[in-house]
């Protein structure tokens, strides 16, 4: 038995969970928000009780110290030495890593080298790691990469049809993201169906404010919708997803946008928000649809259709999937969107059971008994994957 933490550090936030491993019992979880501001918010949940504090949290070091003080204060641990391992979410591992690794100086250098590929996420992840490494020097620290699971893709599914020299010199290729979630869904699907992980042939739909779809063939990532960056693929909350690559060039020429301004438009002002003009949140979109808002209906229809065409295309490419798995904030909690997507895939023999599908956040089959492709809802758990990999490296240390 060992106490293990999972850590997801953003530029101004820190999400954490504390586990008793290998039982995977959650001892505490929480979130530090608005780091760097006077009105930072620290929240921790212990034994079903929620404790919140609003105070100045100038940097990640203060946030980590608050976290550790609260773990001791609420008797989650009696001393720091009880925390044996920490799993850190790292967004981009480039082509270096197809699995999680112990955070060595070499691994840190490789993550730093991938900063140009994830300029917002990798520096935040490294900052979180360095802060925790300083606070918990005796723990085994592990980097868990969003990109690692997708390193199994065949060459034809990750090379872009641009001059090959840009792949050779600049590492421009499809990497894919949400790999930790897609891997969890693969493993959980295998467990639920009593099969080996290498026997899994499914299409996983991680649908939330960020959304990605992955074809998993023989237990490995075969193709995924996000690309060089998390901007690619289906329409998302504020991200455009796939568009004509000439659009940014046309807008830059007409309006004189800088590269950064264009990046902000495509990443922060597009998607459901950009089309609807209402919100990036699907719940707000649904409310606007009920009120007859045409642009909200359009935004929702684009999202559903993009998922349908992606899942349908992947189903053909992989020679047929045994199941479609929904996860993420939308995938787990939007029955109407699941129904619209599966109805659009009826040509493949997929059929939704409306009564079973009327659920939110529950792990279950929502397809009819005669559906040729089974449809599952499996709530994802990226945090437990961080803890599992951290514990595995602790055991091997």
TrEMBL record:
Gene Ontology terms, MF aspect: acetate kinase activity; ATP binding; magnesium ion binding
Active site positions: 146 (proton donor/acceptor)
Organism of derivation: Ileibacterium valens
Record's subcellular location: Cytoplasm
Assembly notes: Homodimer.
Pathway(s) of this molecule: Metabolic intermediate biosynthesis; acetyl-CoA biosynthesis; acetyl-CoA from acetate: step 1/2
GO CC terms of this entry: cytoplasm
Pfam assignment, any one: Acetate_kinase
Enzyme class: transferase
Gene designation: ackA
Descriptive protein name: Acetate kinase
Alphabetically ordered keywords of this record: ATP-binding, Cytoplasm, Kinase, Magnesium, Metal-binding, Nucleotide-binding, Transferase
GO annotation terms (biological process): acetate metabolic process; acetyl-CoA biosynthetic process
Binding of Mg(2+), residues: 8, 382
Reported cofactor(s): Mg(2+); Mn(2+)
EC number from the UniProt entry: 2.7.2.1
Protein's job: Catalyzes the formation of acetyl phosphate from acetate and ATP. Can also catalyze the reverse reaction.
Residues that coordinate or bind substrate: 89
């Amino acid at each position: 038995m060992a106490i293990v933490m999972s850590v997801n550090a953003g530029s101004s936030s820190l999400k954490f969970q504390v586990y008793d491993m290998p039982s995977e019992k959650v001892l505490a979880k929480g979130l530090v928000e608005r780091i760097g501001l006077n009105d930072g918010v620290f929240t921790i949940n212990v034994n079903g009780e929620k404790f919140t504090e609003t105070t100045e949290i100038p940097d990640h070091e203060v946030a980590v110290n608050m976290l550790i003080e609260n773990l001791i204060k609420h008797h989650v641990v009696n001393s720091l030495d009880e925390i044996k391992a920490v799993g850190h979410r790292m967004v981009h591992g480039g082509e270096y890593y197809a699995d999680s690794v112990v955070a060595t100086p070499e691994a840190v250098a490789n993550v730093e080298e991938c900063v140009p590929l994830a300029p917002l996420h990798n520096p935040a992840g490294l900052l979180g790691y360095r802060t925790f490494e300083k606070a918990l020097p005796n723990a085994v620290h592990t980097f868990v990469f969003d990109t690692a699971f997708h390193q199994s893709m065949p060459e034809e599914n990750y090379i872009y049809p641009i001059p090959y020299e840009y792949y050779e010199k600049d590492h421009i290729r499809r990497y894919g993201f949400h790999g930790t979630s897609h891997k969890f869904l693969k493993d959980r699907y295998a467990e639920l169906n009593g099969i080996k992980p290498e026997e899994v042939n499914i299409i996983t739909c991680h649908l939330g404010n960020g959304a990605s779809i992955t074809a998993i063939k023989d237990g490995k990532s075969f193709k995924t919708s996000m690309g060089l960056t998390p901007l690619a693929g289906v329409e998302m909350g504020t991200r455009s997803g796939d568009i004509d690559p000439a659009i940014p060039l046309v807008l830059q020429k007409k309006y004189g946008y800088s590269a950064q301004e264009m990046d902000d438009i495509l990443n922060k002002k597009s998607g459901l928000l950009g089309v609807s003009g209402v919100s990036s949140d699907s719940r707000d979109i649904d409310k606007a649809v009920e009120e007859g808002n045409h642009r909200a209906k359009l935004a929702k229809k684009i999202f559903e259709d993009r998922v349908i065409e992606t899942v349908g295309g992947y189903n053909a490419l992989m020679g047929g999937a045994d199941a479609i798995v929904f996860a993420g904030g939308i995938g787990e909690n939007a029955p109407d969107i699941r129904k619209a997507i599966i109805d659009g895939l009826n040509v493949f023999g997929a059929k939704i059971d409306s009564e079973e599908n009327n659920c939110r956040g529950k792990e279950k089959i929502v397809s009819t008994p005669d559906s040729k492709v089974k449809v599952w809802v499996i709530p994802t758990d990226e945090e437990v994957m961080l803890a599992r990999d951290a514990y595995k490296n602790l055991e091997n240390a």
